[in-house]
Amino acid sequence: MKAILLDVDGTLVNSIPLILESVKITINHFGFRISNQKLRELSQLHSREIALWLIDNKKNNFDLEQFIDYRRKTFLKLLKKNGCEWFNDSKSFILKVSKKHKIGIVTGSRTLFLKEIFDEEIKKNFNFIITSDEVNNKKPDIEPIQITLKKLKVKRHEVVFIGDSTQDALMCKRARIGFIGKTTGISTKRQLEKFKPIFIGKNFKEIELFLGFERN
User: Hey, what CATH topology would domain 16-82 get?
Assistant: First the structure.
């Protein structure tokens, strides 16, 4: 293993409550009602895909760009009001990994969100960061992984990706790289198991043990 790639939302930071709330507020604003289970499913998608699902399944057309803009502004308002906490073992994991391996961020979040939560001290530990603003095809497409592998100069079998969602798992399956699930985010352990991850952990401590950091 030469590199570890990390998701952000639900993996490093506890932003899932903000994501769920912003999607719910936006969907309600546009006149729709959905179940809590469907809300969690849709919240894994980008705003455009959520809007298209509503158009296709609710048989009600609306302005796509207005939906995307409203959701983005709603999320930023919630972020500024409530903040977003890091999981208590995330930063120590990053520091430990960066001493031995290349480390990169592959996130579906936008650059402006990362600017809100990443200070320069933590940012300097990463060899590469790619957000949804820098790709044509977002997760679960493999484009973000392809770009990252090229930038880090590593091969598929030399990389593992740590994420919390089935979108992360699907991207890794398509890209043929090892996936480690972390059950602190949007998807359950049972949902992640369907993609045959190499490991699933409740926190970074368990993941560290699996990767052999404690033994070194």
Answer: DNA polymerase; domain 1 (1.10.150)
Token code pair at residue 171: 């991207």
Query: pTM score, two decimals?
Result: 0.93
Q: Tell me the C-alpha distance between 123 and 103, whole Å.
A: 11
One-letter amino acid at 1 equals M
- pLDDT per residue as tens digits for the range 194-213: 999 999 999 999 999 999 98
How far apart are the C-alpha atoms of 11 and 23, rounded to whole Å?
Answer: 19
Per DSSP, 105 falls in state: E
Both tokens of residue 70? 């409203």
| Pairing outcome for strands 159-163 and 199-201 | unpaired
Tokens of 189: 């352990």
DSSP-assigned letters across all residues of 8-71: -BTTTB--HHHHHHHHHHHHHHTT----HHHHHHHTTS-HHHHHHHHHHHH-----HHHHHHHH
Q: Which two tokens stand for residue 24?
A: 């719910």
Numbered ranges of CATH 3.40.50.1000 in the chain: 3-14+86-211
In what order do the strands lie in the sheet containing 128-130? 128-130, 102-106, 3-6, 159-163, 178-182, 199-201
Return the SS3 of 2: coil
Domain covering 3-14+86-211 in this structure, CATH number: 3.40.50.1000
pLDDT in tens, 53-78: 999 998 788 999 999 999 999 999 99
CA max distance for the chain: 57
